[in-house]
């Protein structure tokens, strides 16, 4: 898989470099050929029904017209909905338009509801749109999204922001593609936010562009990649036989205030099944009397947070911690301490409400990982959730830089960011994770990896990927995604982590 992710500006730089070294129209012809080959794979031979091609006024439309001409020349039945712009098309797009007109492709003005198509090819706008789709473009997309056939988008589903994964505009619309063939390099917007529901399966074709041209842009600018095991698997080494529980660290979950014991226990179970040597719950309030024992996992030790010795232990602060004065004091204590720290849930909200806690967090003497969901991230940044979701990569980057920590911005295509601006977009997981307690398990998992000596960046990458892979494992076994529960995740996480460690041995 192509793991590097390029912004629109970077892709345009690659395109300019390639265009200057190639005869005019070469890239468009190559894009048309690549998309034609991919379309034929999806069609599984010559179709008996109609292929519908949507072509916009720009070069993305030119790519689509090339595909229409190619498929028609191969004997496919092709209908083209051509959306011309106000100005003249580029010479390359004009040439592709003439090719399509010269062949057997049929140009149509309107789409008929209920008309059967074996494939729709979306080449309306690609990486270009800066405004919400409107007028006939919106009508075409609405009609395509009502169809029940495969949809192949060229480069980027029309109406989707290639950089952010957000649908363009507050009331915008984007093509819901089944497949996307993206050109020259992979794009972050295909893998996070709305992109997860609109891009479908993503295939990258570099169009024969010299790797050195791509690498030149990457060496100077690329700051994003997909989160996959090669980024962190080296940390998942098999265990030595000559080891003991002290070899794998202690995790202390600071949380579990009265009425919220479940969150702390889920985090503790996540840490336990991810291999921490010893796991404690430092229960906030009522001197810990709210939790006496985890009857499912009695290995977890329950202690009152007041007077608990956090030193030398990895602290997971926040699950079910509440917002009491005592919770705030305990959080300040661990922020002022040293050693690995993961901040989640209520602890994030306390930090967001206190400039003093923010300063303490930024000065924390040890590796720190934050795991906010979009609303928590919005509170930390002093903005609204839609602002965070409009650009998830930049929101995560800003938080990481501001608080001097590795940040996991949770959600579809979770974004992991570090203070130097590097980001990764997660590839694992499914909607089954949209359930109460899932984030608590992730927090415990991250704490366990930190306790076992994983650096903060690799611990965050590994925790997010393993968390998603565990959910995928459960779904593949028939457990979800509907009705998947957080309590099912720890054992699946254990299986994924052991499989990862076994692979590192080979």
Main sheet: strands, sense, barrel: 11 strands, mixed
CATH superfamily of the largest domain: Ribokinase
Head-to-tail CA distance between termini: 21 Å
Write down how many β-strands occur, each being a DSSP E stretch of 2 or more residues: 18
Q: Strands of the biggest beta sheet: in what spatial order?
A: 1-9-18-17-16-15-14-13-10-11-12
State which percent range the strand residues make up: 15-25%
* Overall body shape: elongated
CATH architecture level-2 label of the largest domain? 3-Layer(aba) Sandwich
CATH topology term of the largest domain: UDP-N-acetylmuramoyl-L-alanine:D-glutamate ligase
- Nearest-integer average pLDDT: 93
Number of domains: 2
Rg measurement, Å = 26 Å
As a percent range, the share of helical residues equals 40-55%
Structural class: alpha/beta
Summarize the structure.
With 506 residues, the chain is α/β, with parallel strands linked by helices. Helix content is 41%, strand content 16%.
Structure description:
There is one protein chain. By secondary structure, the chain is an alpha/beta fold. It folds into 2 domains: 223 residues, Rossmann fold (3-Layer(aba) Sandwich); 268 residues, UDP-N-acetylmuramoyl-L-alanine:D-glutamate ligase, CATH 3.40.1190.20. It is built from 17 helices and 18 strands. The strands form 2 sheets. An 11-stranded mixed sheet has the order 1-9-18-17-16-15-14-13-10-11-12, with helices on both faces. The protein has a 7-stranded parallel sheet with strand order 4-3-2-5-6-7-8, with helices on one face. The protein is elongated, with a radius of gyration of 26 Å. The protein starts with a strand and ends with a helix. 55% of the residues are buried.
């Amino acid at each position: 898989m192509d793991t590097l992710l390029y912004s629109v500006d970077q892709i345009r730089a690659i395109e300019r470099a390639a265009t200057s070294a190639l005869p005019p129209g070469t890239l468009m012809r190559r894009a048309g050929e690549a998309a034609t080959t991919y379309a034929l794979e999806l069609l599984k031979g010559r179709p008996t029904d109609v292929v519908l091609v949507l072509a916009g006024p720009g070069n993305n439309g030119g790519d689509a017209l090339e595909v229409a001409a190619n498929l028609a020349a191969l004997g496919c039945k092709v209908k083209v909905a051509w959306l011309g712009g106000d100005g003249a098309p580029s010479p390359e797009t004009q040439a592709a338009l003439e090719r399509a007109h010269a062949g057997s492709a049929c140009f149509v003005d309107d789409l008929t509801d209920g008309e059967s198509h074996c494939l729709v090819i979306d080449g309306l706008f690609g990486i270009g749109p800066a405004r919400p789709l409107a007028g006939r473009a919106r009508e075409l997309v609405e009609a395509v999204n009502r169809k029940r056939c495969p949809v192949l988008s060229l480069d980027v589903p029309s109406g989707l922001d290639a950089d952010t994964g957000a649908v363009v505009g507050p009331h915008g619309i984007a093509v819901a593609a089944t497949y996307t063939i993206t050109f020259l390099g992979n794009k972050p917007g295909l893998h996070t936010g709305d992109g997860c529901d609109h891009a479908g399966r993503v295939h990258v074709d570099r169009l024969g562009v010299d790797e050195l041209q791509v690498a030149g842009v990457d060496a100077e600018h690329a700051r994003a990649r997909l989160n996959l095991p090669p980024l962190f698997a080296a940390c998942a080494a098999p265990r030595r036989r000559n080891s003991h529980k002290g070899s794998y660290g202690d995790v202390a979950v600071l949380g579990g205030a009265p009425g919220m014991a479940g969150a702390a226990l889920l985090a503790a179970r996540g840490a336990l099944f991810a291999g921490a040597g010893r796991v404690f719950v430092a229960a906030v309030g009522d001197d810990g009397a709210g939790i006496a024992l985890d009857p499912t996992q009695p290995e977890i030790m329950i202690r009152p947070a007041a007077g608990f010795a956090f030193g030398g232990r990895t602290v997971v602060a926040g699950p079910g911690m509440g917002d009491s004065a005592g919770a705030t004091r305990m959080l300040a204590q661990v922020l002022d301490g040293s050693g690995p720290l993961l901040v989640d849930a209520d602890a994030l909200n306390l930090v967001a409400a206190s400039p003093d806690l923010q300063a303490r967090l930024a000065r924390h003497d040890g590796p720190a990982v934050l795991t906010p969901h979009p609303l928590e991230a919005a509170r930390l940044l002093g903005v609204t959730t839609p602002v965070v979701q409009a650009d998830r990569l930049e929101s995560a980057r800003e938080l990481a830089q501001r608080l001097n920590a590795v940040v996991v911005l949770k959600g579809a295509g979770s974004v992991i960011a570090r203070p130097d601006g590097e980001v990764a977009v997660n590839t694992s997981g499914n909607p089954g994770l949209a359930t109460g307690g899932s984030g608590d398990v992730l927090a415990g998992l991250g704490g366990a990896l930190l306790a076992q000596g994983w650096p903060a960046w690799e611990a965050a990458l590994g925790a997010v990927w393993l968390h998603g892979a565990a959910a995928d494992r459960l779904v593949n076994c028939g457990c979800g995604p509907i009705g998947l529960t957080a309590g099912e995740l720890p054992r699946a996480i254990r299986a994924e982590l052991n499989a990862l460690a076994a692979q590192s041995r080979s």
